């Protein structure tokens, strides 16, 4: 308990999935949590659940891909709490499954706008306040696919770029006493995968989506398993961890195999037309 007591944490994309689990864990461990998301209903639900458990949290509607909106909201968070110590850049989208020669500019802009520009904007506007607060920790939620690659080239590129940006930011922000690290989840059972399930006609088992034999751990991760890693990097327990990447992938990086079933267009083995 109290691993981040007295700190103020911003968690983007905190209305569900990894972000929700992280926000709840941060609050349980003593942080005041600023939940930001475009999903107002679930964001407010998370706040109610945190406060009902005795934690402190507030919700702000924010689209991370809009710089002006990010600047305004982060300023409001600082004014409310008087400090910002932790930034978890978790908001992200899937997509970009088409082969490069079939990917549209609009899809490229959508995925990069949220997965890369979002963390860039949040970092840009949070750093001055974190510096005033004496420093802190930024955790960028990337993906194992930013390391090994998969059959989602645009998504993988966005997460690979976030991985590289984290290392550069760690160097650039060291004089502000701000640590920057990236976390790389494998396949996590979140609403994103539930959407994939629906798009495939309602597959009943999670193993049918990925195949448990394709992950050495034999299953998909749960959001809280990723949240524990984020908490560690955000806390003072990781005071000497900077510019690093934490894999929580069940061993996928050591045994990369196709992730999506063959009925999804552009899966490995599909002959380009």
Spell out the key features of this protein.
273 residues, alpha/beta, 7-stranded parallel β-sheet, 42% helix, disordered C terminus
What does this protein look like?
The structure is a single chain. Helices cover 42% and strands 14% of the residues. A 7-stranded parallel beta sheet has the order 3-2-1-4-5-6-7, with helices on both faces. Helix 1 crosses helix 8 and helix 4 runs parallel beside helix 5.
Secondary structure layout plus pairing:
Blueprint: E1 8-12, H1 17-28, E2 32-37, H2 40-52, E3 56-61, H3 67-81, E4 86-89, H4 105-132, E5 136-141, H5 153-172, E6 178-185, H6 191-199, H7 206-210, H8 223-234, E7 245-248
Parallel strand pairs: 1-2, 1-4, 2-3, 4-5, 5-6, 6-7
Taken in chain order, the helices and strands follow as EHEHEHEHEHEHHHE
Bin the strand percentage: 5-15%
Biggest sheet features: 7 strands, parallel
Number of helices: 8
Rounded Rg: 18 Å
Average pLDDT, all residues: 88
Helix content: 40-55%
Major β-sheet strand ordering: 3-2-1-4-5-6-7
Shape: globular
State the low-pLDDT regions, or none. Answer: 261-273
The number of strands is 7
Measured distance between first and last alpha carbons: 56 Å
**Class computed from helices, strands and strand pairing:** alpha/beta
